[in-house]
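Exercise 7b. Backbone tokens:
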């Protein structure tokens, strides 16, 4: 049935999504018995949350409602429950919403758990509990305070920094200002109130954070911080008002936290490889990073702004990341750290995948004589001075190419080499036919 994408269930808010929330509640309630629920600030979140809670209660489950909280706050609260459910569409536009299912350790439901939920839902055979076994939902107070207290165990107070914070009117609008103030920071807030009408693009990309960059640069602040809608993501701006690219933020976190083993995705920059960490790479997606961290590693992340600290939780934790970057900025100017990390030219693009067979393509690509090849996600060729990743798109009939190298000309050469190999493998196939 394929209800679940890489980040749970997502879609435009409509009648089907409300019906589905009830059914997901029934299925989760049936299997997990004791469930905590939270939501982001979207206009449709309360509706979906109550539909889902109705399902949980109808299945005879116990249910705690934490209210509007970030996904990582809900993930931490889920420790005391059989499962956690977050109503959010993360960084998607405000007309979208979704349902994310979490385990008590903060990790997302794995594919076998998702399959089990899908089978229950599509079978449409889940009965409701007898009337005298139905429970009442309870309000779970204090999830935000618990999250703040957990973070403050690891970071010092008395920072005396000036921080500009843009929560985008999402779920961090309460917790992040409070955390920063308790760490001793003066906080200048932008969009830090709950509203489902996001005043900026809710994904924390450079193009959506113009106001944050301007205010941070012009106000003499030490750093700027932004979240996405459910605050599992965090991105930062240095004291000069420059957006810090995610690859550099990954490297800064890893180095300043003193970690030895880092988990990141296949197409994160090679700059991280040059910094002496033991690196393990996964398929693209924060759930893949989270899964891999269960096999070891001190820190994991995705350059889109998902940072995972496994000593706290396997859920990407944008709030913990705020404390981290603030503590780092308390020691030294962020711009100095940013400028020390090399930024290599990176080219991204795509071409039609019609007639391309991946095995044939791989043998064509081998003519580029790479030092090594990885098949973690598509085909990644590594060279002394760069790399090329060729992978089939999951959503369109396209092959995506990414090339990074020490200089622009070499990145272009790798990219064009990949394009040529794709073209050759199509011609070869036609000749064989
Ligand atoms: Mg998110």
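Sequence design result:
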């Amino acid at each position: 049935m394929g209800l679940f994408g890489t980040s749970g269930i997502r879609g435009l808010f409509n009648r089907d999504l409300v019906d589905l929330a009830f059914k997901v509640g029934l299925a989760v309630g049936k299997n997990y018995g004791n469930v905590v629920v939270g939501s982001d600030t979207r206009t449709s979140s309360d509706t979906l949350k109550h539909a889902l809670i109705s399902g949980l209660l109808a299945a005879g489950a116990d249910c705690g409602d934490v209210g509007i909280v970030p996904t990582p706050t809900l993930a931490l609260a889920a420790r005391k429950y059989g499962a956690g459910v977050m109503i959010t569409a993360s960084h998607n536009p405000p007309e979208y919403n979704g349902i994310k299912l979490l385990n008590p350790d903060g990790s997302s439901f794995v594919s076998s758990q998702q399959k089990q939920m899908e089978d229950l839902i599509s079978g449409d055979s889940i009965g409701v509990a007898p009337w005298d076994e139905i429970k009442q939902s309870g309000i779970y107070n204090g999830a935000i305070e618990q999250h703040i207290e957990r973070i403050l165990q690891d970071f010092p107070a008395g920072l005396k920094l000036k921080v500009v914070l843009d929560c985008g009117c999402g779920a961090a609008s309460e917790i992040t200002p409070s955390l920063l103030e308790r760490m001793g920071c003066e906080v200048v807030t932008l969009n830090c109130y709950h509203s489902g009408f996001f005043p900026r693009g809710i994904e924390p990309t450079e193009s959506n954070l113009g106001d944050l960059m301007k205010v941070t640069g012009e106000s003499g602040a030490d750093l700027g911080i932004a979240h996405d809608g459910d605050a599992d993501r965090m991105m930062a701006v240095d004291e000069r008002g420059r957006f810090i690219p995610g690859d550099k933020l990954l490297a800064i976190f890893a180095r300043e936290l003193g970690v030895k083993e880092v988990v990141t995705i296949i197409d994160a920059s090679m700059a991280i490889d040059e910094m002496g960490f033991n690196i393990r790479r996964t398929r693209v997606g924060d759930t893949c990073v989270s899964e891999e961290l269960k096999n070891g590693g001190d820190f994991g992340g995705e350059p889109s702004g998902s940072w995972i600290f496994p000593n706290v939780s396997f859920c990407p934790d944008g709030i913990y990341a705020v404390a981290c970057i603030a503590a780092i900025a308390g020691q030294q100017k962020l711009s100095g750290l940013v400028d020390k990390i090399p930024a290599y030219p990176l080219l991204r693009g795509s071409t039609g995948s019609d007639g391309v067979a991946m095995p044939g393509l791989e043998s064509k690509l081998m003519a580029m004589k790479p030092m090594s090849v990885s098949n973690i996600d598509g085909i990644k060729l590594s060279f002394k001075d760069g790399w090329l990743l060729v992978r089939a798109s999951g959503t369109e009939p396209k092959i995506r190419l990414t090339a990074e190298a020490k200089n622009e000309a070499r990145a272009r050469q790798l990219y064009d080499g990949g394009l040529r190999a794709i073209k050759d493998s199509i011609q070869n196939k036609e000749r064989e036919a």
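Instructor comment: The first strand starts at residue 9 and ends at 12. Residues 90-91, 228, 230, 232-233 surround magnesium ion (CB under 6 Å).
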